[in-house]
């Protein structure tokens, strides 16, 4: 089972260091990834924290889901695997399709 957590509804002022300090209370952190806007390089308000074990990850969920940090209640749960977005049919319009009727 996974030990990677989705951490959402973060204030834009929350830093990786602040998350490390907080989640370190639940156990050993393997990795933290703050998601940034590609264009502005500003935080998007969510990220991922990977704990060393599933037990530590579960403890972090129990400790920090709905926990208030910097004026906002965090959402903490197990991260879902990245979905395969496929290829070819994405993008604007989804690929032709004028004669759908």
Question: How are the SSEs placed, and which strands pair?
Answer:
Blueprint lengths: L3 E5 L7 H8 L5 E8 L6 E9 L2 H11 L3 E2 L2 E2 L1 E4 L23
Antiparallel strand pairs: 1-3, 1-6, 2-3, 4-5
Describe this entry's structure for a reader.
The protein has one domain: RRM (RNA recognition motif) domain (Alpha-Beta Plaits, 2-Layer Sandwich), CATH 3.30.70. It is 19% helix and 30% strand. It has 2 helices and 6 strands. The longest helix is centred in the middle third of the chain and has 11 residues. It is globular, with a radius of gyration of 17 Å. The termini are far apart.
Mean pLDDT: 88
CATH topology: Alpha-Beta Plaits
Low-confidence stretches: none
Named at the architecture level, the CATH assignment is: 2-Layer Sandwich
Number of strands: 6
- How is the main sheet built? 4 strands, antiparallel
CATH class: Alpha Beta
User: Number of helix segments?
Assistant: 2
Q: Give me the secondary-structure category.
A: alpha+beta
- The total tally of domains equals 1
Q: Considering the protein shown, what is the CATH homologous superfamily? A: RRM (RNA recognition motif) domain
Spell the H/E element sequence: EHEEHEEE
How would you write the strand order of the largest sheet? Answer: 2-3-1-6
Helix fraction, binned, reads 10-25%
Distance between the termini: 46 Å
Strand content: 25-35%
- The shape, in one word, is globular
From the alpha carbons, calculate the radius of gyration and give it in angstroms.
Answer: 17 Å
């Amino acid at each position: 089972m996974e030990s990677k957590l989705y951490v959402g509804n973060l204030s834009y002022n929350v830093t990786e260091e602040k998350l490390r300090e907080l989640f370190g209370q639940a156990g050993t952190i393997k990795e933290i990834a703050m998601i940034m806007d590609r264009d502005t390089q500003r935080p998007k308000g969510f990220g991922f924290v990977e704990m060393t074990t599933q037990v530590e990850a579960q403890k972090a969920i129990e400790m920090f889901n709905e926990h208030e940090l910097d004026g906002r209640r965090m959402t903490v749960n197990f991260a879902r695997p990245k979905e395969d977005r496929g290829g070819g049919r994405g993008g604007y319009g989804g690929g032709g399709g004028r004669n759908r009727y």
